[in-house]
Amino acid sequence: MLLKQLPQAVQQIRCISSATTAVTRLHRSVYCRLYPTVVVQPDGSTINIRYHEPRKIIKLPLDLSTLTDAERRARLEARKPRKKVRIMEEVEDNFNAKKYMKYIKKK
What's the DSSP call for residue 23? Predict the structure, then answer.
């Protein structure tokens, strides 16, 4: 009831202007235009296409069944997290401060 009595300028609750921005991508089911996109095939070759969503690059998955056993094992090992190697070096400490006391001037 109250909104019907107010003028049109006062009824506007959300201020839409050119300064309004979106933090994430626009959530549309259908995009109006096609966007230039790079498709990377499993062998590393690239193709420039027009895609319906705004993306820069699309990487196609590699079929592991077509690889040899050695290549498959190497790819699966590369997926696993690497263990951190700790190098513990023992430094031989034979420093003797009394040897250098003669160079220190006493005031």
Answer: S
Give, in degrees to the nearest 5, the angle at Cα 65 between 59 and 67. 80
pTM more than 0.85:
no
CB 54 within 8 Å of CB 36: no
pLDDT of 15? 61
Q: In terms of residues, how long is the chain?
A: 107
In a domain, 61, yes or no: yes
In a domain, 107, yes or no: no
Rounded-to-integer distance, Cα 92 and Cα 48, Å: 60
Do the Cβ atoms of 41 and 47 come closer than 8 Å? yes
Helix residue spans in the chain (DSSP H): 2-5, 8-11, 69-79
Domain that holds residue 49: 29-82
